[in-house]
Amino acid sequence: MDQNIKNVEIRLDNIEVLTSGATAEFVNGILDFLLYQRRQIPFVYKTYKYYVDKWSDADKSGESEAQESFAHYQRNQQRSKAKATKKSISDMREIIRQAFGSSKVKSLRFLFGNNTFMPSEAYTLHIPHDSISRDHYCDHHALPEGRINQALLRLLTCEELYTLFSTELNTTNVFLEIELLTDIVPCDFGNLIPKHVSSKLPRSCKNIHLHLLHCSENTQNELRCCKEMDIYQDLGLLNLDKSGADVSKTNEEQDLLKAASETSGWWQAEVIVRGFRAPGNQKSGDLWTS
Ligand SMILES: [Zn+2]
User: Fold this and answer.
1) Residue 110: is it exposed, middle or buried by C-beta count within 10 angstroms (0-12/13-18/19+)?
2) CA 33–ligand 1 middle distance (angstroms)
3) Which backbone phi and psi does 149 adopt, to 5 degrees?
4) pLDDT tens digit string along 208-247?
5) How far is the CA of 132 from the centre of ligand 1 (A)?
6) Can you give the residue range of the structural domain that contains 83?
7) Which of 5-14, 38-47, 252-261 shows the lowest per-residue confidence on average (mean pLDDT)?
8) What is the CATH number of the domain that holds 91?
């Protein structure tokens, strides 16, 4: 087997119900983690966003217009780049949210490299789409931040990734590809470009597969918290929930259903995150704090 391929499991423990919204937040947590861990942003995303938003507020109130020196000009140039990077990250996070909100996501891939043909690192996230519940509300089952951090911390200390994470990666581009369990272009978001297959990775590319696992002791059908709502009650009376439906279908029908649910297509997000690093000749403290 290609030694560049690494398979790592990420477990979400003690999460009773996994909703699509919570999964999107978890995926966004992994994106943030990778951006910082692979040195595409100088701080964790939250801190980075805080600084960049602070400049924008200062710009609006006209505080930073007074000086005309070259150093000042240079600093503003850097800040514009940093702002563009922040915007693209926030756009990519939104695409991920929309994808989970409107379709079944089978997998996602973050490609780090100058272009999608020759990436140097690829992170494929395999989504436990069968354990994502559609009968529960995201708001009732938000993923606690601590739980996300716990899972990410395990990624950081994972032996498989240790060597990779201790190598330097230059500032580069980050691309997003999404595999949806549908062959129809999702029309409600126009910033995805269809692809026939996922990008083929060159042999030199570090090929990391993160398998998201959802472990819960309760089966989701037993949990009725969000089913108190009338609509779910009606579905229950009609015996349309999963367990009932499976029994009444012939094998042939089940095969057809299975085939349909296995039809998937790849899309590439138009938005590209360009990594940002302040140039070494500049007092970097200056850029962030002044
Ligand atoms: Zn619920």
Assistant:
1) buried
2) 28
3) -60, -40
4) 999 999 877 666 556 777 766 545 445 555 544 444 444 4
5) 12
6) 5-215+263-289
7) 252-261
8) 3.30.900.20
